[in-house]
Amino acid sequence: MTAHEIDYHIYGEEMQYVEIELDPQEAVVAEAGSFMMMDTGIHMDTIFGDGSNQTQGVMGKLFSAGKRLLTGESLFMTVFLNQYHGKRKVSFASPYPGKIVPIDLTKYGGRFICQKDAFLCAAKGVSVGIEFSRKLGRGLFGGEGFIMQKLEGDGMAFVHAGGTLARKELQAGEVLKVDTGCIVGFTKDVHYDIEFVGGIKNTIFGGEGLFYATLQGPGVVYIQSLPFSRLAGRIYAAAPQGGGQQRGEGSILGGLGNLLDGDNRF
């Protein structure tokens, strides 16, 4: 194996964290901000990119970091190396309510495609690259951007899904239609495309967006019930404008109560 072989345990139900056990000189690479806790004896270091090209000199490091820049992520990642003479543990937490999904890349042909915000951490040696869409329509109307992340190697990787997780095994030729933001990731043989919803009523009054994703098997697809973009949009829509306290919501008068109180500003 080129990637470090790590053991792990996932704790919790809705606000999960993953605890990774490292043997001496084993390491794990994680997104900035996902760290939760670790034992003494583990050394934390910031590196360019994902650490998969660290032995290829300066150009390898720059290429690895450049791939992350294209996905909109930070140029840097954090590596946690066990420098102790015994086993040590380090934990990483999910950024919002949902599930942490362990991905054994050896079971999926060494490659897994995921949304750019889904990646949490992986064994050092796993490459976190970019997956360009072959069709312009996916980039223009995909809802999550032109570029997705590509996890490659023979180690363990961990991705995060918002809300409840659904795992679908598609047979050859079987098609699943999904909201674009609800896709967590899929295996390398799944064909991904974007389709127009169609219909004037659906377009104007549907409220579900103009496009959805079609995923065609064979392969495995992971779907999330609550994408972070949807959660953030609902929170923003419910937040009081102008910093004032919204006392009307849930009351009998509703917004009329604020108007009578003189709280509404025009």
UniProtKB/TrEMBL annotation:
Coiled coil: none annotated. It comes from the Bacteria. NCBIfam families: TIGR00266 family protein (TIGR00266). This is AIM24 domain containing protein. It comes from Flavobacterium beibuense.
